[in-house]
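Justification of computing resources. Each target in the renewal requires a structure prediction run like the one illustrated here; the chain below, 218 residues long, is used simply to show the kind of job we budget for.
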Amino acid sequence: MGYNVAIDGPAGAGKSTIAKLVAEKKGYIYVDTGAMYRGLAIHFLDKGIQAEETEKVIEACKDADVKIQYENGTQQVYLNGTNITGRLRDEAVGKMTSKCSVIPKVREKLLDLQRDLARTQDVIMDGRDIGTCVLPGADVKVYLTASVETRAKRRYDELMAKGERCDLDEIARDIKERDFRDMNRETAPLKKAEDAVLIDSSDMTIEEVVEAIAGLCR
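Resulting structure tokens:
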């Protein structure tokens, strides 16, 4: 039986960064849902399916098995037993992923794959509904958040470091709007699980957040 850690929280809270670092520190598998979506996209492409052929996409989900594992500290993605890591960033794969990820049955398939992985491996997952929907029985649940101002400043600094022009107030407005959409959407809305530990990282360093979450885990 796998040991499961679920990290949920709003956009810009640093969930993925923290989850990856905790995974490295504790020896867990970080479940990269984006990579899993891309693995499914490769499956559809290999079958010659077009993104618009929704029924064929749904049918093809039945015989797709996407797994994540770490080899020499590097994430590897397998599709039906074949290592496809080198194909994940292909442009065609990205386009197929974007189009197919909105199909509900694709999301359902991904949920099944994530849960299968969690049953057999020690994993850490981050998202909006991991502790409430994907892994409601997770051993550790964390709701990681930060103030809108803090999240906006982090995003602003990130974009500025890339040389992109941006406006701090506009970023803050976008974050507020996204929070509202995520918390009020009909399917799997963002909310803190009743048994989740709340961590507000507004005044914490990345290292402090990692230590706080790692300290909750076995």
